[in-house]
Specification:
By secondary structure, the chain is an alpha+beta fold. It folds into 4 domains: 150 residues, beta-sandwich domain of Sec23/24 (Immunoglobulin-like, Sandwich); 259 residues, von Willebrand factor, type A domain (Rossmann fold, 3-Layer(aba) Sandwich); 100 residues, no CATH class; 158 residues, Severin (3-Layer(aba) Sandwich). The chain is 31% helix and 21% strand. It is built from 22 helices and 30 strands. The protein is globular. Helix 9 packs parallel to helix 17. 43% of the residues are buried.
């Protein structure tokens, strides 16, 4: 099977270090932090390899970790010892028959990952809810595209799935779907914030003194319907409301409010999302529900506004955010943080499909999408294949299914010496304190449990670890050579079944300064590159607050500063150095790489030519070179929306996919050889070659000049040139197989050497040939017009700095 070569193995867990130093000091010297990336459900290709058992697992009475293959079992006394806290636990009576030859599934050594089907007290679990939110402030052509996509999606939903529909523009319209004979709409003003209680009152789902539908009660007195029953006016099974919803979509028009010349349309995205969250809040808690927001432009009205209605005011750029010159940004982020909190408390998901040539506010909405575990797709148009194919995949079943799950929680148990700093990825801290919580926080921290309202088969999280600083030489675990980690995910499967997935892994401790060789062999350089990318992205987003704080310190007058010049200079130096590190991600990454190579490289002091790297580290400089040039670090030429989009996907994908985002793959096709990997370098371009670049977000088929000329002359259509036709077809087939398995669907770019779209390839290649050294290149070689250093120059500098005394 293909997945057997997968470095993530059947558990799906990958760590930066597969051998761990025992002390906090030794861990800090390793430079790359202790981290693990974990899947939260079972990836589709492992589905049949991981057993599912139909009973509730056993938990340790002291630390609540689950019975696993690493427990010590006394079959005679029917006792098991927890590897995490060393507590002795008695097996319950129904385990009375266990023996070394009659083991329960959870004690089989190969079942380090196991799935439990939890008996559901409710024999008829509530169906999942899909609440569609459609922006009507778009041009008629875009409206036709999005209506068509919605109608197709509704046809793909399970018959029992509940469906609701809200449209918004200058105002918000909640469509009542219970009456197919007459279109009934509830309208909300779009220019002011609205609370959940106000939404419920106005929709007749709660509150007092509000007109509500009635049912006959005892003694002939009318009694108000419970909110959950009244909700059925707005949320109906797909099979019951498909005709009504299609009729509503057919009649739906673009926003009719007049727009003065030189103004943007009034679009109240924030209020629409508040209304949607309020409506779903009337469902019973824990119902798997998704708000699927289809947005075609920036919010200009009410809470969540990102730009004024005046067209002469541009939408905020990275430069505006750096200079704190984006007047709406912080207020909008605060609003979406509040919305995220509400959705998380309800257990509901926000999915965002943003399709526009300009920005729509993904950067502001990021917090609500990420904290609820929602999907995000960014495209130029609702007619573009990136939107159409991605949107369709959300609702497809079978092999193409995303495996959408709901109401997930993750718990982590670990050996006593290990502390959890936090998680980077689509989840929310549940603030569950415990002895494993570290003092420092990275991402979603201060907890050993996290909430994931939405999760799917591609969702991965990055867990950041630290070690206890206290001396544990006298503790029972000090003599234990193994460390243990357990990841417990509970969630509702797509068919409503309650599942529990348990993965327990072990790694080895190594002691002291003599462990360098063992550490080297246990290093995973691809995982390290991805973890550093996620950390750098997180720092770039969060450390702006440090900059502001330091600026305040600098402006505070110290009474003794005039008399103590040395103190003043020292303080300024500290602030300058801290500020540089806080904001220059490239410099931060460079320093980390230099320190790592200096510690683990093999060299003689001050002799760069003597420097060599062990194969376990040899690819990392190349990864870091591509990372510092990537869209995650270089925000120039990208909008804040694009940057937020790229980072959200970086944080939720597995290591292989995230690695391709950082360092794209390149395949070469030619007459002389079979398709083969090519160097990600400008030297790989040749007139008689076709190159296929996979950078995750886009897939580029690049035809060399000669190939393009022959194609334009139609040689592939001539019987004697079948080999050429096959050469043209091979990269197309490979590109389609890449696109078919990926979400969001990448953009396909077909281009020719020296054509305008060749930039999609050239931007990702190592600039070994530029205008500055073009005279050294062979005639006809491609060059890249850039001042960026090449990988060769980068590595020379790295060698020089790593060997310095």
């Amino acid at each position: 099977m293909a997945h057997l070569a997968d470095p993530e193995g059947i558990d799906g867990v990958r760590m930066t270090w597969n051998v761990w130093p025992r002390s906090k000091v030794e861990a800090s010297k390793c430079v790359i932090p202790l981290a693990a990336t974990i899947p939260v459900t079972i990836p589709h290709h492992y589905h049949h390899d991981i057993p599912t058992v139909p009973y509730t697992p056993l938990r340790c009475k002291s630390c609540s970790s689950l019975l696993n293959p690493f427990c010590i079992v006394d079959f005679t006394a029917k006792i098991w010892i927890c590897p995490f806290c060393f507590s002795r636990n008695t097996f319950p009576p129904h385990y009375a028959q266990i023996s070394p030859t009659n083991l329960p599934a959870e004690l089989y050594p190969q079942y380090t990952t196991l799935q439990y089907t939890i008996p559901n007290p409710n024999p008829n679990p509530q169906p999942h809810v899909f609440l569609f939110l459609l922006d009507t402030c778009i041009i008629p052509e875009e409206m036709d595209y999005v209506k068509s996509a919605l109608q197709r999606a509704i046809g793909l939903l399970p018959d029992n799935a509940l469906v609701g529909f809200i449209s918004f523009g200058t105002q918000v319209q909640v469509h009542e779907l219970a009456f197919s004979d007459m279109s009934k709409v509830y309208v909300f003003r779009g220019n002011k914030e609205i609370t959940k209680d106000q939404v419920l009152e106005q929709l007749g789902l709660g509150g007092s003194g509000v007109a509500r539908p009635y049912q006959k009660g005892g003694m002939g007195m009318p009694q108000p319907l419970p909110a959950s029953a009244a909700v059925t006016r707005f949320l109906l099974p797909a099979s019951d409301c498909e005709y009504t919803l299609n009729s509503v979509l057919d009649e739906l028009e673009n926003d009719q409010w007049p727009v003065p010349p030189g103004s943007r349309q009034a679009r109240c995205t924030g209020v629409a999302l508040s209304v949607a969250a309020g409506l779903l809040g009337a469902c019973s808690p824990g119902t798997g529900a998704r708000i699927i927001a289809l947005v075609g432009g920036p919010c200009t009205e009410g809470p969540g506004t990102i730009v004024s209605k005046d067209l002469s005011d541009p939408v905020r750029s990275h430069k505006d955010l750096d200079k704190d010159a984006a007047p709406y940004f912080k207020k909008a982020v605060k609003f979406y943080e509040g919305l995220a909190k509400q959705l998380v408390s309800q257990g509901h998901v926000l999915d965002l499909f943003a399709s526009a040539l300009d920005q729509v506010g993904v950067a502001e909405m990021k917090v609500a999408v990420e904290k609820t575990g929602g999907l995000v797709v960014l495209s130029e148009s609702f007619g573009h294949s990136v939107f159409k194919d991605s949107f369709k995949r959300v609702f497809e079943d079978g092999e193409q299914s995303l495996g959408l799950c709901f109401n997930g929680t993750l718990e982590i148990n670990c050996s006593k010496e290990i502390k959890i700093q936090g998680i980077i990825g689509p989840c929310t801290s549940l603030e569950k304190k415990g002895p494993s919580v570290a003092d420092t926080v990275i991402g979603q921290g201060n907890t050993t449990a996290w909430k994931m309202c939405g999760l799917d088969k591609s969702t991965h999280l990055t867990v950041m670890f630290d070690l206890s600083s206290s001396d544990r030489s006298n503790t029972p675990s000090a003599n234990n050579q193994q460390l243990y980690l357990q990841f417990v995910t509970s969630y509702q499967s797509p068919d409503g079944q309650s599942m529990l997935r348990v993965t327990t892994v072990t790694r080895r401790w190594v002691d002291g300064a003599d462990s360098s060789e063992e550490l080297i062999q246990g290093f995973d350089q691809e995982t390290a590159a991805v973890v550093m990318a996620r950390l750098a992205s997180l720092k770039m987003e969060t450390e702006v607050f440090h900059k502001l704080f330091l600026f305040v310190i600098l402006m505070v007058p110290f009474p003794f500063m005039d008399t103590c010049l040395v103190y003043q200079v020292t303080l300024l130096s500290i602030i300058f150095l801290f500020d540089q590190e806080a904001f220059d991600a490239t410099r931060w990454l460079d320093r980390a790489l230099i320190r790592l190579c200096s510690k683990f490289g093999d060299y003689r002091k001050d002799e760069p030519s003597s420097f060599t790297l062990n194969p376990s580290f040899s690819l990392l400089p190349q990864f870091m070179f591509n990372l510092r040039r990537s869209q995650f670090v270089q925000v120039f030429n990208n909008s804040p929306d694009e940057t937020a989009y790229f980072r959200m996907l970086l944080n939720r994908e597995n290591i292989s996919n995230a690695g391709v985002m950082i360092q794209p793959s390149l395949i070469s096709y030619s007459f002389n050889s079979l398709p083969a990997p090519a160097l990600l370098d400008v030297s790989s371009i040749s007139a008689d070659r076709i190159l296929l670049l996979d950078s995750y977000f886009s897939v580029v088929i690049f035809h060399g000049m000669t190939i393009a000329q022959w194609r334009n002359l139609g040689y592939q259509n001539q019987p004697e040139h079948q080999a050429f036709a096959q050469l043209l077809e091979a990269p197309r087939d490979d590109a389609q197989s890449m696109i078919r398995d990926r979400f969001p669907v990448p953009r396909l770019v077909v281009c020719d050497q020296h054509g305008s779209q060749a930039r999609f390839l050239l931007a990702k290649l190592n600039p070994s040939a530029t205008y500055s050294n073009a005279h050294e290149m062979a005639a006809g070689s491609d060059i890249i017009f850039t001042d960026d250093v090449s990988l060769q120059v980068f590595f020379e500098h790295l060698q020089k700095l790593a060997v310095q005394s």
